[in-house]
Design a protein that fits this description.
With about 80 residues, this protein is α/β, with parallel strands linked by helices. The protein contains four helices and three strands; from the N terminus they run E-H-H-E-H-E-H. It has a three-stranded parallel beta sheet, with no helix packed on it.
Length: about 80
Amino acid sequence: MRFLLVGDTHGEKDLGKLRAPEVARLGLGEQDAIIHLGDLGAPWRKDSDDVLKWWQRLPMQVIICLGNHENYGWIARQPVLRR
């Protein structure tokens, strides 16, 4: 298992660094994990839910430490998964 640490991914430019080809270039797969160190969304943007749903589509586990720029309403509606 390998870990990728990221943070402050507020928009398309930042998420572009984590698109499938970039993740593939890093050799990350389902057995690996991304640890997000906060500020994964942009609650002031209309497409905040789309950005957050993007994280759900990644093939690997995503572990999130919440920051001060989160869409807490959306997060509260999500199921807690334990493995």
